[in-house]
Amino acid sequence: MEKTFVMIKPDVTLRKTRGIIGDIINRIEKTGLKIKALKMKKLTKEEAEEFYSPHKGKHFYETLIEFVTSGPVIGMIVEGEDAIKKIREICGATDPKKASEGTIRHDYGINITCNSIHASTSEEDFQRESSIFFSQDEVYDYEYVDEKEFEKYL
Predict the structure, then answer these.
(1) pLDDT string in tens for the chain (154-residue length)
(2) Which CATH architecture has domain 2-142?
(3) Active-site residue 118, yes or no?
(4) Which of 11, 56, 67, 94 could cross-link 114 (Cys pair, CB 3.0–4.6 Å)?
(5) Which position among 55, 59, 106, 118 bears the catalytic label?
(6) Which sequence spans correspond to the domains of the chain?
């Protein structure tokens, strides 16, 4: 099973009028992928610089660091078959203007920086990004149970 990292950005968490955190998480769950870890966190400048280290030196790097440290973000580790590809598909293109209709960035993104969500592009990115958010003991292995097995708790 493949794992990927997803981060809901400050343009979602900071704006009172948006109220879309649950919707974004719901869209991820509807892919059939399993959420293995979930945490809200305010990144330090150093963590943000490590997170976006592949973009260091690019014209948008400093703005991106300032933006992602402006408020809390929500990090998730998601697991399942073709997790990286599936999550990237529901996120849509980085620029919300170019994202397909029905994707998270198309529906909620404001611009190329404030595009609501980040998703790992590779296994290597997943390893780097998820390690900034989660220790091994914060990632949970569990199996889904069917309704009959769950009835004992009702």
Answers:
(1) 999 999 999 999 998 877 899 999 999 999 999 999 999 999 999 999 999 999 999 999 999 999 999 999 999 999 999 999 999 999 999 999 999 999 999 999 999 999 999 999 999 999 999 999 999 999 999 988 888 888 888 8
(2) 2-Layer Sandwich (3.30)
(3) yes
(4) 11
(5) 118
(6) 2-142
